[in-house]
Write a structure and sequence with these properties.
Elements (H helix, E strand, L loop, with lengths): L1 E12 L1 H6 L3 H18 L5 E6 L2 E7 L6 H25 L5 H4 L5 E16 L2 E5 L1 H10 L3 H5 L4 E5 H7 L2 H4 L3 E5 L7 E7 L1 H10 L4 H4 L1 E9 L3 H9 L1 H8 L3 E5 L11 E6 L2 E11 L3 E8 L2 E12 L2 E9 L14 H30 L1
Parallel strand pairs: 4-6
Antiparallel strand pairs: 1-3, 1-4, 2-3, 4-5, 6-8, 7-8, 9-15, 10-11, 11-12, 12-13, 13-14, 14-15
Length: about 350
C-alpha cells in the first residue's frame, strides 16, 4: 500500500575523491565510523531505509504525524554531529597520513522530498519504491555546490517545503534551479549549513553536571516519543504543566522554537521567562528559568521505553543574577520545592495525556 511522507537522502560529499587520494585502509575505517554516526542519528521522526554507498536513505511517513520542525531540527543536529566528529578526529589524531590530512574534504548534504512511495520489506531493510524516490536519487547528484558555493546544505523540493509549512524558515532558503534532462528543471530551496555549524561550534555543548545538579526525577509516560515531545514543548500544554494562566512562545526569526527562543509563563500580571539554552528534538531540551530571586537550568530528556516513553527531568542549583550559587543551607529546601512542583507538573500533563488518548480511542 502506498503512503505519503518525507524522503531524506543524507550524502557525504567528497567521498570518492577522499578515497582516491587517501590511504585506503585508514580512509575506509574513518568513513565507516562516519556512516555509523549517521545511522545513529536516524532517530524519530525518521525511519532508516538503507545505506547506499556514501548515502543514508531515511523516511518519515505522514501516518507518524511528523512535527515538521522536529524533522528540520533532526537534520540540522545530524549535520552538527557529523562536523563535530570530523573535528574530533582531527584534534585527537597524531597521525600524519593523507587519510587524516584530507578530512576537510568531507562534508554532508541532505536532499529532502515529500511525496508518495511504497515501503517493501526486503531482508532487514525497508526498500522505498516510486517516482518520488527516483526523483530523490536524481537530485542527490546536483550542481548546488558549483552554483551556490555550498559544500554542506539542506536542499528541499517545493513539495517538501509545502509539507513543512514553516513560512519563516522557507523565507530564509535560497532558490536553486537544477537542470534536468527534460525541459523541466527542478526548483530546490537550499539552506547553507556552514553558518549553523560555526554558531553551534562556538556555543559548545551544555553540561548540566558541570553546573551542579540539584534535582533528578523520571516518569514513565504511556505515549510515543514524538507525542511526548509535543506535550513538553507546546505552549498550551506547558501552561497546564507549569500551572500558569497562559503561555506565549517567542520564536526565532525563522518561526521555529530553538536555542534562544523564549517561553513566557503568565501568572496574573507576573511574567516569567523560560529561555531555551539547548534544543535536540525530540529527545532533549534545556531552559533557564527563575527560581525565587535566582535562576536555574532545567532539562527534559526523553527516550523510548516499554509501553511508551521514559522522561527524565533535572534541575541545577540556582544562581543569583551575578552568577553566585545560592548558599548550601538553602539547597535542601529548594530541592524539596522543585521536586514537589515538578511532581505536580508531571501529574497534570499525564492526566491530560490520558484524557486525550481516551478521547481519541
Amino acid at each position: 500500500m502506498s503512503e505519503q511522507g518525507f524522503l531524506v537522502c543524507a550524502d557525504i560529499t567528497g567521498y570518492t575523491h577522499y578515497l582516491d587520494e587517501s590511504e585506503l585502509d585508514h580512509a575506509s575505517r574513518i568513513l565507516s565510523d562516519v556512516l555509523d554516526l549517521l545511522l545513529g542519528e536516524v532517530q524519530t521522526p525518521l525511519r532508516l531505509s538503507r545505506v547506499e554507498g556514501d548515502a543514508v536513505i531515511s523516511y518519515a511517513p505522514a501516518a507518524d504525524a511528523v512535527n515538521p520542525q522536529v524533522l528540520v531540527d533532526r537534520l540540522e543536529n545530524t549535520y552538527v554531529a557529523f562536523r563535530r566528529a570530523l573535528d574530533q578526529n582531527v584534534a585527537n589524531s597524531m597521525c600524519g597520513c593523507r587519510a587524516c590530512a584530507n578530512l576537510s574534504w568531507l562534508d554532508l548534504k541532505f536532499i529532502v522530498h515529500h511525496g508518495e512511495f511504497v515501503v517493501q520489506r526486503i531482508g532487514t531493510q525497508d526498500e522505498l519504491v516510486g517516482p518520488a524516490v527516483n526523483l530523490l536519487f536524481r537530485l542527490a547528484k546536483n550542481t548546488i555546490r558549483e552554483t551556490l558555493g555550498m559544500a554542506g546544505y539542506l536542499a528541499f523540493t517545493e513539495a517538501a517545503v509545502t509539507a513543512l509549512a514553516i513560512p519563516g524558515y522557507a523565507a530564509q532558503l535560497v532558490e536553486h534551479l537544477e537542470p534536468a534532462a527534460s525541459d523541466d528543471s527542478q526548483r530546490l530551496l537550499v539552506k547553507d549549513m556552514a553558518p549553523i555549524w560555526e554558531e553551534r561550534r562556538a556555543r559548545g555543548t551544555l553540561d548540566l553536571a558541570a553546573e551542579g545538579v540539584l534535582v533528578t526525577m523520571e516518569r514513565q509516560v504511556p505515549a510515543r516519543l514524538t507525542v511526548v515531545w509535543d506535550y513538553l514543548t507546546g505552549p498550551a500544554l506547558r501552561a497546564l504543566m507549569f500551572g500558569s494562566d497562559r503561555e506565549d512562545a517567542q520564536a526565532l526569526e525563522d518561526g521555529r522554537m530553538g536555542i534562544d527562543a523564549v517561553y513566557v509563563c503568565w501568572h496574573g500580571e507576573a511574567r516569567l521567562e523560560h529561555r531555551i539554552v539547548d534544543w535536540d528534538p525530540p529527545v532533549r531540551y534545556a531552559f533557564l528559568a527563575p527560581v525565587g530571586e535566582a535562576t536555574a537550568l532545567g532539562e527534559f530528556t526523553s527516550h523510548p521505553h516499554i509501553d511508551g516513553t521514559l522522561v527524565n527531568f533535572r534541575a541545577t542549583v540556582p544562581r543569583t543574577s551575578d552568577g553566585v550559587i545560592i548558599p548550601e543551607e538553602m539547597h535542601a529546601g529548594v530541592a524539596a520545592e522543585l521536586t514537589e512542583f515538578f511532581d505536580g507538573a508531571f501529574d497534570r500533563i499525564l492526566e491530560q495525556l490520558e484524557s486525550d488518548l481516551a478521547a481519541a480511542s
